[in-house]
Amino acid sequence: MESPPRKIIHIDMDAFFASVEQRDNPALRGTPVVVGSPAARGVIAAASYEARRFGVRSAMPSSTALRKCPQLVFVPHRFEVYRAVSRQIHGIFASYADFIEPLSLDEAYLDVTGNKAGIETATQTARIIRDRIRRETGLTASAGISYNKFLAKMASDQNKPDGQFLVAPGRGEAFVQTLPIGRFYGVGEVTAAKMKRLGIHTGEDLHRQSLSFLQEHFGKSGPWFYGIARGIDHRPVNPDRARKSSGSETTFETDLLDTARIEAEVAALSDKVFAWCEKAGTFGRTVTVKVKYADFQQATRSRSIAGPIIEAERLRRLGQDLVRSVFPLRTGVRLLGVTVSSFDAAATNAAVSQTALPV
């Protein structure tokens, strides 16, 4: 007999870091707040919804954010506080699900198929969890409810902030077809641009493509795109999921030959990776830079240091030092990537705590 559909909830805190700061400092409420540094080479770790109305987003350079919203209020990060609130929220999750897969400090999947709390529906479970989060932390969360992880993740973004959305069994394929391709989880900026060049702008456009076409143009990602265009995702909620690395890469329309431009691109990629590390609350000690040349030959350079990299500027410097090791260039560069790995939670906690000590 066919198994009944799973019941998956994706909980996503609303502007988590910034909302914690607004909660703890009433003077910040209603103002465009970002967590980060206003320094020329700073990067935004989180933005309040008031800031987002101006187009400010996490991982954006601070200089760009200030041009979009000159009245931005910058506050420094307090990771020890964010981690404490995250533990409180995950304690709430544990009352309703045995299978919980954290994605970062502020979001997680919950498999409530087993109905641990004896609540009639997954929709009611999500509403009760959100109410408890608001009551016990003073913060709001949004939720997506569906029969697989991909659809639940997409649904949690539908009624943000402080809302929820259900994609019921039998409705997933139709729901996906209404979405712009840039909203798809797992489709980054470069892939979205490539899809648009191929005439794929929406889920409906993606659905029209054959598996062979998607494999031809997107390689091993082709079957994934083919499946999600049909609302298919068989991945289980994995409580033991441990992220081993975080990376970002960019393919350029025109091959790069200017070494100063290459260093600047590596710095920008480093900022994106560091923004993820800040959001996840975990920091690595190994940096890897990937360089793919115009002839598709590839070079990688890595360096490991004694402790976790908890400062954006240090990650930038390490990345730039590594890419300089391939200079002078043998030919143009078509792709650059930066990855951080060797995550160590205990070392991260010790390092962050040390930086918080008075001097």
| Helical residues, percent | 25-40%
**How much of the residues is beta strand, in percent?**
15-25%
**Runs with pLDDT <50, length 5+?**
355-359
CATH class of the largest domain: Alpha Beta
Gyration radius (Cα, Å) is: 21 Å
Write down the domain tally: 3
Describe this structure in words.
The protein is α+β, with helices and mostly antiparallel strands. It has 3 domains: 1-168, Alpha-Beta Plaits; 173-228, Orthogonal Bundle (DNA polymerase, domain 1); 245-356, DNA polymerase, Y-family, little finger domain (Dna Ligase, domain 1, 2-Layer Sandwich), CATH 3.30.1490. Helices cover 39% and strands 21% of the residues. The chain has 14 helices and 12 strands. It has helices spanning 16-24, 49-52, 62-68, 79-93, 122-137, 149-155, 172-177, 189-197, 203-207, 211-218, 222-228, 259-280, 312-324, 345-356; strands spanning 8-13, 33-36, 44-47, 73-75, 99-104, 107-111, 141-146, 164-166, 245-256, 284-293, 298-304, 333-343. It has a 5-stranded mixed beta sheet with strand order 5-6-1-7-8. Strands 9-12-10-11 form a 4-stranded antiparallel beta sheet, covered by helices on one side. Strands 3-2-4 form a 3-stranded mixed beta sheet. α4 (79-93) packs antiparallel against α5 (122-137), α10 crosses α11 (222-228) and α12 (259-280) packs antiparallel against α13 (312-324). The model is unreliable at 355-359 (pLDDT under 50).
